[in-house]
Amino acid sequence: MVFRKLTVQNRHFQIEQQIMEALQNGTYQVGDKLPTEQEIAKQMGVSRHSVREALSAFQLAGLIEKKVGNGTYVREVGTNPQSRVLAILENNESPTELLEARMVLEGAAMRFAVDKSTQQDMESIDRILTKMREAVENDDYRGYLKEHWNFHRAVAKATGNSVIEKAINLLLSGGSEKLWQEMEENYYLPNQTEYLRDSFELHYRIFLGIKNKERDSLDELIQEHFERELQK
Fold it and tell me: Which pTM value belongs to this model?
């Protein structure tokens, strides 16, 4: 076993450190294929999402290369490789931590919207869902992603609380950072048809949960939504 179980704090940096050690001590050399993200996640006791975050930083630094359908390979190590990866991790919000923060804040906002949303709010979200459905039918990932963010912004607005709305919009802006976009490019786009279909269905059910004031089912849907992302 190459990788070790991690402690709770700063896991994304610990994942980076272990992968870097494996490259620098020669366990994996240029041209070698790395273990799958599932194998690394199992050895370290972390989610696949966290491993993808670290591997995306390595790819942005030019140290590894992901070949769709064929795995991830060591591309080069070069000079000061750790500083290059750390610079990416330090200058980008952790996608895993952003998702965890969204789960806490947006989950509460969705529940709040059950009592605070107006008919106009629901009509606005319904129009966004129509555009999301069209994007799914056209296999348009970029178009879907745009409307997906609009969905979450509209739910935040439906709370009627400007502070909550601003806080959620700040979290959602993390989706434009390089590390998040690198993860999307390598892990979501290649399987976009299935991802879009499942994502739309879940968002539509969340909409119905808010609209019909189905608090029990909404709690389950919120949990499913964010845990699905974190466990991918």
Answer: 0.75
